[in-house]
């Protein structure tokens, strides 16, 4: 297998901020990355909200009260003209947090609360039914012209009837077994799983996280290239899917962002609400939004040579809600 490369020709122009790069050189680089965008970027703003910024992980949708609370969130988001949501509430009838295999303890909210079952091959698209409360919220969100986006961790130890030996590797970050993105077998399995799940649930897209390259037996490039292949093929199959990129994707650079169809990490740093008073001590949300957006856009544009189509802007966050015992959940 070989990789292509580009030879760029451009006419020298005045230098751009430093004596190392000139305007024409920078624009040639931007044009090169733009050419390889898998699908055209959106012609209007993408109004997306991340559910955990409203602490949706504390809402148990296995209960009537939890479903009612989540519908109120959907109603509010719809009033704000938000069209997609990274959906990650708990669902104690389907999954349990203590059964998760990731270091962060959130596998129970992945894949619309089906993450643990999908990893163990206990739930399969087109074979098993969608949990009733999940289906209800999918349908309810659709009546408000809102799409739910599934939260997914790619490198967990997905099983597949013995075939998983081609990609499972020993690693403590997935409770002993992680999946290697360098495995061709895993690439095809995971791509088909993503396509099938999206078609069965009619979700609006995927939110990627925890996508660390744990496999030390292969090069980082081989795993990065494999992940890019999965995203490209997924968008070619379902170009309407929104991509909410996390796991520090703001550091991956413009060649990773050709598969955005959404945005990279919007704050380019710690996304937790307690970050606010540390960096910008203000009670004015519009001022805080501008203070986050301007340096973020500057970094992407000036330091990473991102095209304007790759710049996400600012995604709002809310203050944390404490548990009844006064601590964080």
| Poorly predicted tracts of residues | 315-322
Overall pLDDT score:
86
Question: Total helix count?
Answer: 8
Shape estimate: globular
CATH architecture of the domain at 36-265: Alpha-Beta Barrel
Provide the CATH superfamily of the domain at 36-265.
Aldolase class I
Helix content: 25-40%
**Major sheet: arrangement of strands:** 1-2-3-6-7-8
Order of helices and strands: HEHEHHEEEHEHEEHH
For this structure, the CATH topology of the domain at 36-265 is TIM Barrel
Q: Any idea of the CATH class of the domain at 36-265? A: Alpha Beta
Structural class: alpha/beta
In a nutshell, what does this entry contain?
This protein is of the alpha/beta class and 329 residues long.
List its traits.
329 residues, alpha/beta, TIM Barrel, two-stranded antiparallel sheet, 32% helix
Structure description:
- With 329 residues, the protein is α/β, with parallel strands linked by helices.
- It has a domain at 36-265: Alpha-Beta Barrel (TIM Barrel), CATH 3.20.20.
- It has eight helices and eight strands.
- The protein has helices at 23-35, 64-79, 115-119, 132-143, 184-201, 220-237, 275-279, 285-303; strands at residues 48-50, 84-87, 147-152, 168-171, 176-179, 205-208, 242-245, 262-263.
- The strands form two sheets. A six-stranded parallel sheet has the order 1-2-3-6-7-8. Strands 4-5 form a two-stranded antiparallel ribbon.
- The model is unreliable at 315-322 (pLDDT under 50).
